[in-house]
Fold each of these.
Amino acid sequence: MLSATVGSMRSHLYEADHEDFRASVRTFVEKEIAPFHAQWEKDSIVPRELWTAGGEQGFLGIDQDEQYGGGGVRDFRYQAVLAEEMARVGASGVGFGLHNDVVSPYLRDLATEEQKQRWVPGFCSGETITAIAMTEPGTGSDLQGITTTARRDGDGWVLNGSKTFITNGINADLVIVVARTNPDAPASKGTSLLVVERGMAGFERGRNLEKVGLKAQDTAELFFTDVRVPGENLLGTVDRGFLHLMENLPQERLSIAIGAVAAVETVLAQTVEYVTSRTAFGRPVGSFQNSRFVLAELQTEATVARVFVDECIRQLDAGTLTAVDAAQAKWWCSDLQNRVADRCLQLHGGYGYMDEYPVSKAWRDARVQSIYGGTNEIMKEIIGRSMGL
Ligand SMILES: Cc1cc2nc3c(=O)[nH]c(=O)nc-3n(C[C@H](O)[C@H](O)[C@H](O)COP(=O)(O)OP(=O)(O)OC[C@H]3O[C@@H](n4cnc5c(N)ncnc54)[C@H](O)[C@@H]3O)c2cc1C
């Protein structure tokens, strides 16, 4: 059984209610996800029924108001527990994190009453799966360069363009699309968030993209050709889409850091178990000084990461998490996750390269963490700028 904690640094973050919640998530994950995930990796997607099963358990829309079917709790620790328990079984294909941690605040904070009534109940029940589409084939880091446009047409818009690398892209019923609504203004002042729904004429999905890792996650291309988006599907303020993105990106980045630390803890626990049982030269490989030093170094870094991320979670809940702190958490923890996966794979020897050992999947799944949510180079730009550089 893997430990849910590293060292003694953790005990202050979670309370009894969170641990009760953890127990129910763990049961769900072990019963409904772990036995099937390998098949979903082959399918390159998770079934929609998993979403409704998660919705029934109250795992979706934890922070949405109860009147719309949400959990009515604004406490990111619950979402962190969910991410941790998914990471512990390597459930990297289940897009609940994107739905809960990334999309949910847009609906919670920007949707009108009428929009909430239309979208949030399905969001919480798992019948409405969501995605957010910023990245385009020609631009990712430089969001100012997006070319998807929405031209005014009566009380709505006509949307044209394409997006790529969109998480939940195949399953999504509701996609928040970042589009230029004022071509004469810079993107920061002429971009809006438009909600495109499954079935709208001119909205097509492209390939479910084949990837290095996150094999069970549907990551897709989306195409918009003269899609008529009604005025009531504008999310937030017209031409202020960038502002809305900036407000929400710190939570997305912290969510990545939380997943990274949970993955680090899991891989470390699995590796300690492996090096204790595998022998070479008549002794456990974990007893070589190199193995002990490598694992001691990684354990120390894992503890440091955990303490920092826990503090970021507290700050997020207090409304004081800065974009710079979130950027620090995102780059450092995802970088650590990659280092830990790589060094732990090495300690497994040839078995580490075999799919039957979870460390190989952990290594593949880790790779993207320094890329999406803003690359780690962009995180360092944000931090550097805050230092006046
Ligand atoms: C599995 C996966 C899921 C994703 N999910 C989503 C999603 O749901 N929604 C969504 O909108 N996007 C999603 N993305 C896209 C992701 O956010 C982008 O890939 C990422 O922002 C980088 O953009 P890019 O791929 O265009 O790389 P580019 O911007 O072309 O960057 C290429 C390289 O140049 C570097 N670079 C760029 N600008 C600078 C700079 N100013 N200084 C230093 N270096 C720089 C980058 O760090 C990178 O190393 C996903 C991507 C993947 C792989």
Note: Strands lie at 130-133, 149-153, 156-167, 174-180, 191-197, 203-208, 219-229, 234-235, 279-280, 283-284.
Amino acid sequence: MPEIIVDLFWLLAFIFIVLFVAYHRINLMVSSLIITTSTYLYTSFGDGNFIWNMTLWLIAGALLTINIVPIRRSRISKPLLDIYRKMVPKMSSTEREALEAGNVWWDGELFSGMPNWDVLMSMPSPTLSADEKTFLDGPCEELCSMLDDWEISHVNGDLSEEIWKFIKKHKFFAMIIPKKYGGLEFSSYANAMVITKLASRSAVVSSTVGVPNSLGPGELLMHYGTEEQKEHYLPGLASGEEIPCFALTSPEAGSDASAIIDSGIICKDQWNNEEIIGIRLNWDKRYITLAPVATVLGLAFKLHDPDHLIGDADEYGITAALIPTNTPGVSFGRRHYPMNIPFQNGPTSGQDVFVPLDYIIGGKDMAGKGWKMLVECLSVGRAITLPSSAAGGGQAAAYASGAYTQIRKQFNLPISEFDGIKEALARIAGYAYTMNSAISVTSGAIDEGEKPAVPSAILKYHCTEMGRKVANDAMDVHGGKAVMMGPKNYIGRSFMATPIAITVEGANILTRSLIIFGQGAVRCHPFVLKELEAAEEKDQKKGLKNFDKALFAHIGYAISNLSRSLILAITQAKYSKSPVNTITKRYYQHINRYSAAFAVASDFAMLSLGGELKKKELLSARLGDVLSSIYLASTVLKHYENQGCKSEDLPLVEWSVRTQMYEAQEKLHNFLNNMPNRILAFFLRCNIFPRGRSYSPPSDILTKKVASLITATSKSRDRLSEFAYTTLEPGNPLGLLQEALLLSEDAALIEAKLNQARKDGIIQSSYLGHQIEEAKKQGLLNTQEIEKIKLVHQKVSDLLSVDDFSQNEFGKKQ
Ligand SMILES: Cc1cc2nc3c(=O)[nH]c(=O)nc-3n(C[C@H](O)[C@H](O)[C@H](O)COP(=O)(O)OP(=O)(O)OC[C@H]3O[C@@H](n4cnc5c(N)ncnc54)[C@H](O)[C@@H]3O)c2cc1C
């Protein structure tokens, strides 16, 4: 065999072994031995020159040496720890509490660059219990049937007395309260589906019901309340006698909620004719949902103890207490007007309100723990209420827009036949599918005991953003029908509501820029938090030991990810592990690839920018987008499995995953384009995109297939809008649209006959109403056909019509 081939063989074999060891994350000791043996074989039989061979032996020697822990610790880890301690800013207690909230789940796997798919795939498919199903089919359907959004929003500016009573009677406010206190004790999945259904019908009702089942007194009491507080409040909250609200936001502190100046001073005063130690509260809060009608106010304030009446500290920090709104000094009742969606929301203030210490949630021991309570509860709650509201809007928009564009004709064709409309319809359907997937998979994980803080932030941001895109598209495909407000407009108000979900529970720009990656990078990264904790460890010996362990594991992990990212990019991940061997296998493999690429980019971003990365929001937000995209894509795949791999849904799966993966690719590309260290950026580009950017967005053929799934009655269409309120009744536009769609499908042959007759010049008019008259005169259709097509015409005309008002009605001039 020619010598050059033999030499090449040894070189390739050597490279292959090194990459193999790194790719599979073989432990340090074993990989050192393998690499040393390979070095011996290569330098003995290969054709490397002296300098090259010596370099390899030096690397092998260094590898073997770092296995000797005492030498490694004293010579490498100790000096690095000293530098690291100087570099890393000290974490504030609020930052630490935010980081410690919740736990790490599938997000940690995606962050690792080598996801163990079992973690996701072993999660059972979420299901509804018999009680939950009965509630959704019973009271929830009934409540939807009682709602008239125009009456609520335009005429009354509130829910009617009857609706308030119904909501309380059927315990809509008590979905998360345990049964032993009289609540419904629903799973997170059921809670999410109830909100989805309500949101498909009325944003006022979904907001009203959503808040007490999200972050509020009920949730806080269950987790941190004393037994007495639970006994005192939870039964009342469950029965609806008590209406809760939670007041954190104040004029000076919105996104930076920890900056509130609302205060509580520990002092002595009279309470029930007795002098007690209590808290004198002063607050000025705004934007508080349910505050105008609340009976109990969850209040966040900063607790001070200047006279040291309860301990040695002067300041305790943010504390949460429950204040009955009839306590002297409490002001409430005035209302804000959020975006034409008049759910009860308003300011509240308190002046020198004196309350006992046991009004603190959890009692005196929980003084100063308010921030921790809030971030812990939010770490789960953010995955439910707002994402489900967006999904409800998405399900309704998909159902309505599919039918509407089929029954609305222009240029003699249903507008759904036009490619421009198909593109918008595909986005509506695809994003609705992605939202459904993310919510059902994540709420299912919560029900299995996970508290996924980073996925919750991902869902809060991305579902509400997808909801906004869907609402925009639904407006566009409906044209003037969606613009003209009135009882017949079923689209405009959910479009108006989108900024509300964008703003609350962590405004979206902040969530994307600071929380998803900012929190995720430290929280989900397998080693960063361990390194930070080791650096802050007071026991120097223990700190060094932990730092050394984390650091070398981190280095091994970074090398492994570099190798994985390169190999997976070159091979387009074709040989990587997938939990399924079906048509969706390639998507799992692409996620493997982007997980490794993301891990590499994150590590090098942190290495090159350190603490600065947090301030470089444009960069960190893009990394957060990559993590979000692969998280969302993986939930789509899991949802498809959970629903029994329905092949009709494959276009939706493909559109959703492709859109997310394309987004991941483009965001990584933009991240590299903007990385300040250009040499590093070039190196990373060679590693991550050695074959360029190969992922393309959904093709036109796919776009059309997805659009066609919602413009005709089908199982896919029903599954996509499974939890929307679609019942056929006179007040429900979704039910009526479906009825019209079915009728027009049934009359398709008659319409085809009329079209043909028009083409042949037998009838002249292009307007269906006149065509029917002409066809009747000419005996073109039989009586039954005439009745059928007349019915379609009448139903469609009703649905296409819009409202008009007299001068007096309009603008409430009378
Ligand atoms: C309808 C509605 C209901 C609400 N209900 C409640 C309630 O029940 N209880 C309660 O306590 N609060 C409630 N809120 C308050 C809500 O949580 C706050 O509005 C929210 O936290 C944002 O504060 P802000 O409106 O003052 O905006 P600001 O904090 O002024 O923010 C303005 C913009 O700046 C961005 N921003 C701020 N900081 C950063 C940063 N570091 N990086 C990037 N961008 C940043 C934000 O994302 C936002 O886009 C409600 C608000 C609304 C609108």
Note: The radius of gyration is 31 Å.
